Amino acid sequence: MAVKEAVPAQDEKSAIDDSPLIEPIGFTPVQINSTRTRLFFTRRALMVAACLLLSLLVLIYLVIARSLIFETQPNNAEISISGFALPLGDGHLVLPGNYSYTISADGYLSKSGEVEVSSDGHSRHTVTLEKLPGHLQVETDPSVPVKVLINGSEVPNKNGLVENLSPGGLRVTVLSDRYLPFTREIKIEGLDNTYRLAANLRPAWANIRISSNPPGATVSANGKVLGTTPLNTELVQGDRVVSISLPEHKTVDVPVAVTAGVDQTLPTVNLGPADGLLRVVTTPEGAGVTVDGEFRGHTPLELELTSGKIHRLRFFKDGYASIEHTVDLSAGMERDLNVNLNAVYGRVYVTSVPSDAEVYIDGQYAGKSGQTFNLPAKSHNIEVRKNGYKAFDTKVIPSAKLEQTVRAVLLTREQARWQQVPSSYRHGAGGTMKLMRPNAVFTMGSSRREQGRRANEVMRQVSLNRPFYIGATEVTNREFRRFKRMHTSRHVNGISLDNDNLPVVSISWIDAALFCNWLSDRDGLAPVYLTERGRIVGFDSAADGYRLPTEAEWAWLARYDKGTMRKYPWGNELPIGANSGNYADSHAAKLVPAVLRTYSDRYAATAPVGSYSPNPLGIYDLGGNVSEWIHDLYTIGTGLSSRLEENPVGPQDGDYHVIRGSSWRHSGLTELRLSYRDYGEGPRNDIGFRVARWIN
Question: How far is CA 639 from CA 292, 435, 447, 675, in A?
């Protein structure tokens, strides 16, 4: 806008004006920005922009956010979540991620944890708060110190306050001296609340009146003095013992059954004169003492004796003469008695085989055997020793009236060791084992001139000196079925071979050897037969387990008779003696082609083991009943050799095993001889076995 200068108007006629004169001033035009810029930076425009941005962020948050809901018990618990969490209804709206939370409520233990909120869905969690423990305040009437038991167990309390009890039902028992127990069932709410239990206690005592003759006696119970008679006192219920004592009189203990609230007057107690006290010492000490025939102990000893009466005392000790004394004590009197005992001696003569052994009496060397020793008449331990022999010991009580003799027969250490080995025992399957200690050199086999001899009975010189146990009978069906429960020995033409007491048959040599290994394991012994996949691959001759008898053992057992060797099981001559064994007799005529027509053993096939007389060594059925599997592999020698075989066990390799002894099927001269040998591997209905084992 153009600025014009003001010019006063000219009038033709000049005049004088009294108004103030207006003068021009300086003026600077205002710089104004464009309208667009001014509108963009206005406050209103900024607020609108901020609202739009916030709305956008909220929209993005609502799209991305997921709900996090906690279901709590109690349901009024306070929930605190770390980070930005927008409360929304029953939960919170949060972005995906990990959040820490804390949930708390009055009366409950707070619980904290972490949750993960994924972008795939909403997150819901159940949280149960644990109640705070409760408390119990026991208030008694009357107010007395108490013990508090919760469910039968005592708990600490302070003036009747028991703190920190788990919520739930409890059985509370309140105990106090001189009051009856108080019991209640209560329920602890928890939540840090205190349950107040009012307990009205009832007295647990009764009034007891006690009197004595003479009066003035002191009355006590449980070590506490209650007063003097006559006395009225209170006693707590239960079985009590009241002691009533008066100088120079016997103390009397009176049992009292006290019932709470039931007063009693006890019968008057008569106090008799006090016993006298006798202190007894003997030289030597340890003597037995009887008073009027009643044993009272060993010296030194204090004896309470009835006053005003004569007592008879007897003192005795081994090796000393007994002494008697009489004593009379007045009431309350104390006296000492010293008694010297006189030793009594007896003579003991000690002899030994072998002679000149050393004699020890009560552990002390006394001299050589063959002497008489003068000893106190008490029990002595006598030991007789000699190098190379086991010591002999015995006990003896010498007598002054009779000389005694001790005869010590000393055993070598070997003899003593064998004395500890049982002569027989029963193995784990039930059979009896008998000890054999052979020391024999004999000829196995038979002469070529012997009637009935077979070519495999080659004569051999054998030394047998290794001790062993042998089964007194053959293994029975009952014993074998403990190893193989389903085994059957079958039958022959309808006659059973399967009864429990009959010898087991229909078994192979391997079956018998595996039975031996099983029995070794059962009895805790080292197995003899070595196996691989159920096959026998060898044997361990050092093992102490069960095995089959060796051929040398069987031959010695069967033939040995007082230093000579038998030809037949019954002797050296025919015919067969009565009750000699189970052979093919007339009863077996329908089972075998040839029988002994003039002999009867009462059985057509096998007989129960031990049915006939044993041989001279006490072994049954080594001839007859069943033939027996032998440990040795079968071989045939080439003739009598001058080489002496010691405890032979047979070769390690071979195809068959030896079979020895006749059976119920045999009646021929060849088979009845004890030199008869057979061989095989598979089962037969007339082959069984017996077990043996070495003693290492």
Answer: 90, 32, 10, 15
Exposed, middle or buried by CB within 10 Å (0-12, 13-18, 19+), for 681?
middle
**CB 77 within 8 Å of CB 105:** yes
Residue 687 has pLDDT above 80, yes or no: yes
Nearest to 546 by CA among 617, 472, 634, 470: 470
pLDDT at 117: 82
Please state, for a pLDDT cut of 70, what percent of the chain lies above it: 93
Strand runs labelled E in 318-447: 320-328, 334-340, 345-353, 358-361, 364-368, 371-376, 380-385, 389-390, 392-396, 404-409, 411-412, 424-426, 432-436, 440-444
Structure tokens at 443: 């000829």
Residue 75 in 3-state DSSP?
coil
**pLDDT at 7 (0 to 100):** 40
Which residues sit opposite 646 in a β-bridge? 463
Q: What is the pLDDT of residues 247-264, one digit of tens each?
A: 888 888 999 998 888 899
Confidence of residue 5 (pLDDT cuts 50, 70, 90): very low
| Dihedral over Cα of 584, 586, 587, 591: its sign | positive
Cis check: omega of the bond before 503, within 30 degrees of 0: no
**By the 8 A CB rule, do 550 and 632 touch?**
yes
pLDDT at 576: 92
C-alpha to C-alpha distance for 55 and 47, rounded to whole angstroms: 12
Which distant-in-sequence residues (6+ apart) come within 8 Å of 655 by Cβ? 633, 634, 681
Q: Please state, in angstroms and rounded to a whole number, the distance separating the CA atoms of residues 676 and 674.
A: 5
Q: What pairs with residue 225 in β-bridges? A: 220
Q: How far is CA 654 from CA 72, 477, 630, 647, 690, in A?
A: 87, 29, 13, 19, 21
pLDDT at position 680 over 80:
yes
Whether residue 354 is preceded by a cis peptide bond, meaning omega within 30 degrees of 0, is yes
The helix or strand, by DSSP H or E, that contains position 668, with its residue range, turns out to be: none
- What gap in Å lies between CA 256 and CA 261, rounded to an integer? 14
Asked if residue 667 lies in contact with residue 595, where contact means CB atoms within 8 angstroms, the answer is yes
Output Rg (C-alpha) for the chain, integer angstroms: 58
Instruction: Evaluate whether 530 touches 538 at the Cβ level (below 8 Å).
Output: yes
Strands (E), 498-614: 529-532, 535-539, 560-561, 564-565
Omega prior to 230 cis, within 30 of 0 = yes
Q: What is the dihedral of CA 490, 496, 499, 505, to 10 degrees?
A: -40
Q: Is 642 helix (H, G, I), strand (E, B) or coil?
A: coil
Give the model confidence (pLDDT) of 23-57 as tens digits. 666 655 555 454 454 555 688 888 888 888 888 87
CA distances (Å), 176 to each of 57, 154, 223, 237, in order?
73, 12, 20, 13
pLDDT of 506 > 90? The answer is yes
Closest CA to 362 of 353, 375, 346: 375
Beta strands in 24-96 (DSSP E): 66-73, 78-81, 86-88, 91-94
Q: What is the DSSP letter of 214?
A: S
